[in-house]
Structure formats: C-alpha cells, structure tokens
Write a structure and sequence with these properties.
This protein is α+β, with helices and mostly antiparallel strands. The protein is built from six helices and 13 strands. It folds into three domains: about 40 residues; about 200 residues, Neurotransmitter-gated ion-channel ligand-binding domain (Acetylcholine Binding Protein, Chain: A, Distorted Sandwich); about 80 residues, Methane Monooxygenase Hydroxylase, Chain G, domain 1. It is about 30% helix and about 30% strand. The strands form two sheets. Strands 1, 2, 3, 5, 6, 7, 9 and 10 form an eight-stranded mixed β-sheet that branches. Strands 4, 8, 11, 12 and 13 form a five-stranded antiparallel β-sheet that branches. Helix 3 runs antiparallel to helix 4, helix 3 packs parallel to helix 5 and helix 4 packs antiparallel against helix 5.
Amino acid sequence: MINNVQLFTNKTSKYDHTTIVSRRTNQISTILDGLLKDYQAHTRPNFGDGPTKVHLDILINSFGPIQDMDMSYTINCYFRQGWRDERLQFAEEVGVLSLSTKMLERLWRPDTIFYNSQYSYLHTIPTSNRLWRLFPNGSIWYSSRITVKAKCNMNLKNFPVDTQICHLLIGSFANSALDIQYNWRLGNNKSVNFDTKVLLSQFDLIQYPQYDEITNTNGRNFSVLRADFVLKRHMGYYILQVYVPSSMLVMLSWVSFFIHREATADRVNVGVMTFLSLTTLNFDIRNYTAAVSYLTAIDWFIIMAYVFLLASLLQFAFVHYFTKFGFGEPLTCYQNSFDEDLLDENDTKGNDYNLRPSIFHTDFTN
C-alpha cells in the first residue's frame, strides 16, 4: 500500500513539473509572437529620436601570430555587443530569455564591421558560436566567437629594436554617427581583456588602450571604436641569429692581419670567405623581414659589417702593393743604385751570383 502511494506521488510530481514547463514554454511563445507581430527588422530602434547606442566589449582568447611580411596580426576573441530595442519590452517577472540564434535573424542588428580587417570569420564548429539574451526592458546582449586578421601598418626603420602599434578599428558599415553611436561597455581601457596571460614569440604586449572617436568619411561622420595594441619586439632571436654571427665574421676577417704578407692565397681566402658568408646570412635575413623601400636598423648593421670586411681586404692589397716582395721593406727611390753597387762588388770576386729578386725582376750574370 505504501509503495503504491509513493509511486502515485512520484507520477504526480513528474506530471506537475511537466505541466509547469509546458505552461512556461507556451507563455514564452506567446510573448515572442506578440513582440514579433508588428516588428520591423529593417528599422533601427529609436528611429527618428536620436542615434541607437551600441555597447561593445571584447574578450581575447589568443593574440597572434604577428606577421612582418604582410604587416598583419590575428586575434581570436569573444565579440560582445549590446543595445536596447524598446519594441521588445515584456513583463519583468518572465525574466531573461535565452533563445535560439535563429530568432536573432528576425530582429534588427547593428551592421558592425572591422574597418582594418583583411578577413574575418565566425566559428561554426561543432555549431555556430553565437548566443544572445533578451532582457525585459528590451535590451539585447549578443556574443559571438570570431577570428580577425587585421592590417597593422608598421614602421620598420628601427627593426629589430622597434615598437609597433597595431590598431583594431570597429564601426558601422553603412550607418553614420547620426544613426548608430558606438561606445565601450565597460569604459575606455577596461573593455578589451584577455582570457589568459599573453605570451608572444617575438613581442611583448606593453599596453592596449581603447578610444571612441568620430571620423569623417566622404563627408559623413562615423562613430568608431579603436583599440591600440602596443607591441615591443624581442631582441634575443636577432642577437643570436644576426648580430652575433655578423660580429664573429668581422672578427674572423681580422685573422688575415696576422698571416704572413707573402701568403697571398691564405689572406685572400679568409677575406673572400667571410664576405660570402655575410652575404649568405644577409639573404637569410631577407626571408623573414618585410620588403620595404627604406633601410632598417639591421640593414645599417649589415652594411657596416660589409665595410669592415672590405676594409680588411683593401688593407692587405695596400700592404702587398707598397712593400717589396721577400723582405716586406718599403720601396725607395734608391732601389736601382743599391742593386748596381751590389753588382759591382760581386764582379770583383769573379764569381757568378744570383741577385735576390726584386720588384724589378732583372737578372744579372757575370
């Protein structure tokens, strides 16, 4: 008997719970049908009574890579927008509604874009990474997970000891500041945040301030939000890959100063091999730096290394040309008379002598 009562109680509880859920579902469906009955999705909220205010904030999952070759950077983030549509107000006791994104297609949404993006895409695996919330006062909170590759205009004159500022520009595609006004939801310098600590391979993220501004395009004012990512480049990689090898090649060329002057082949080989090695290193550097029309700091360093290598070769050529072969003595205007006096002295002995070779290469016999 007791078991039958418990079974009846459980069935009654399940039935009551199902009934409550069914009633709430019907209530929400009735509310949504009423909200969308005369709703015009092509008309923005607050039309004819000031601009629609759109609030933004960004949570960045990953930052990078940062490409010098095409001057771009990539971010993966949760892009969150919020605005109020008074046409969607409903009873406060219903609470916040979390609905399918399919319904969002039937509502007005701001035409927000990234002005300096090269390409962007919404993550859709395993399902579309979007969600939205509808509040009783008509406020809408819309979040999506996206990846953006944006243009970053870099000044590489100080490369690789440079600091770059990469902008992220956000605004409306077609609506001017009279129609849509953007602002940071949490205020300037607080609305762009990172999910984890940022660790970049070649840069340190120094700061990322945010601004809201009005820009003029084709005679129309547009509301624009700007985030500046200040990036300072790491020097360690370039010290090990460029500066240290180049300096060692220059010092290696100085070895020729201690090689005997008459060892022409050895001295020339040292100079030429260091010159060619530096050229190979320079070509390797060009594989991962942008092709710009001006000289960078690393270009000036390589040029000075070339100058030192060339100077070591010219020094050997100068010494070899202006000293006598065999003795390393400077040439004098008395070379001819010195050889003639030595010839006369040898003739008196009646013997054949071979004079030491000189730069005149004259043979005398008895």
